[in-house]
Amino acid sequence: MLRRIASRLTYANVVSTAALFLALGLGTSYAAEHLGRNTVGSAQIRTGAVRSAEVHDRSLRTADLALSARNALRGKVGPAGPQGPAGTPAVSYFAVVGSAGQLVRGNAKGGGHTSVGSGTYNVTFGRDISACAYVATIGTADATPPPAGHASVASDGQGGVVVQTTDAAGNPQDLGFHVVVAC
Fold first, then answer.
1. How confident is the model at residue 1 (pLDDT cuts 50, 70, 90)?
2. Minimal CA–CA distance to 160: which of 132, 124, 112?
3. C-alpha span between 20 and 56 (Å, rounded)
4. d(CA 114, CA 122)
5. Cα 181 vs. chain centroid, distance in angstroms?
6. Which runs of consecutive H residues, i.e. helices, occur in the chain?
């Protein structure tokens, strides 16, 4: 068997086989030594060289696509759907109360001082508002600026609110206020 192979050996066969092994060995080692990790970019890849089979499923993000490809993914805006049913109406109550405890305007059913000089007022509305949200602020019934002070509001436990007004130093004082209740 060796004689048969030796009889067919020519200079051209030996040189071409040696050149093939040299090219394979040196080319791979050159790439391993001189090309760093992730050094092949879009400039080194020919157009059409990467096909769907070479891309892992779900590995591309929308940002990886050209703007024209992203725009092509968007469909046309369809017709507006039918009007939906009306939602539950928001129920709001409010009151403007003077410093003497009188209801100046609003939809409160009752109000007044707990005791004169205490800065404490009770305000009631047409329904139980204990599950609602409420806010109060120092205010006047006309265009005059309100005095410096603070107002706090809490449920009275019976469906109304208790508003406490204080001067700027935090001392109880009878001051006019505005209260808003949103249910």
1. low
2. 124
3. 33
4. 6
5. 28
6. 2-8, 11-34, 67-73
